[in-house]
Amino acid sequence: MKDLRRYLVLKYVQYLVLSSSNAISTFLGLLGSLYTIIILQSAKVSSKSTAVLISSLAKADILVSVSVVSEMVVWTFDVSISSTAFTSALLQNLLTANAHISCLLLSCVAFEAYLITFFPTESRYLRTVKNATLTSRVIWILVTAECTLFQTDDLLKASSTSAPNCSPCVLLFHFSSTAAALLKSLSYFLGILLRIVNVYIYYKIFFSMSNR
């Protein structure tokens, strides 16, 4: 459907073109995700692997909604938070999880488009609803584990001043800090790689379609 294609273009611009999200792109992304979820509930939309990936992509914006609503509640009603550092880190990690899940799912959609264009028959056994569902679940699990590590690292940093200076605590702090730093570096370079791969895929698809 044209609406789903427009939604994908919006998401590609939001996560793979813009260097960082802004209020306008975030708001448009949330509206687009809400509209897409409604569309995918319609019986007119066939249940295909691409639809499964797009549905998971739209649901990832629930994380953004939670973060935005929480900040609005705190700001509007002047709610006092006992652990400001923990809450701030949690809301930021929700946004990080959304960005990482979205980038990975968009790359999966691009890869599927590549298979459909160049290997439509040979790749049919790969492009199934079951494989798309499994891929979406694996992505959510991996990113959840990643952001859990980030949250643990932020929590340990916030409580490091008041924590007792015992050997196990110090070892745990250093291990968490090192693992989080390595994972952030890996995520950064993976994000750059995904941008390059997506550009290459759609470059190949565009010239393939124009030559037909």
How would you summarize the topology of this molecule?
Elements: H1 2-17, H2 23-40, H3 49-59, H4 61-77, H5 84-118, H6 129-158, H7 167-210
Distance between the termini: 22 Å
The biggest beta sheet, please?
A: none
Radius of gyration (CA) equals 20 Å
Give the overall silhouette: globular
In percent, how much strand structure appears in the residues? under 5%
| Structural class computed from helices and strand pairing | mainly alpha
Low-confidence runs of at least 5 consecutive residues: none
Number of E-type strands: 0
Mean pLDDT across all amino acids: 85
N-to-C SSE string, H for helix and E for strand: HHHHHHH
Report the helical percentage: over 70%
Number of helices: 7
What is this entry, summarized?
The chain has 212 residues and is mostly helical. The chain has helices at residues 2-17, 23-40, 49-59, 61-77, 84-118, 129-158, 167-210.
Could you describe the 3D structure shown?
Helix 3 (49-59) packs antiparallel against helix 5. The chain is globular, with a radius of gyration of 20 Å. The chain has helices at residues 2-17, 23-40, 49-59, 61-77, 84-118, 129-158, 167-210. The model has no long low-confidence stretch (mean pLDDT 85). Helices cover 81% and strands 0% of the residues. It is mainly alpha-helical and 212 residues long. The chain has seven helices and no strands.
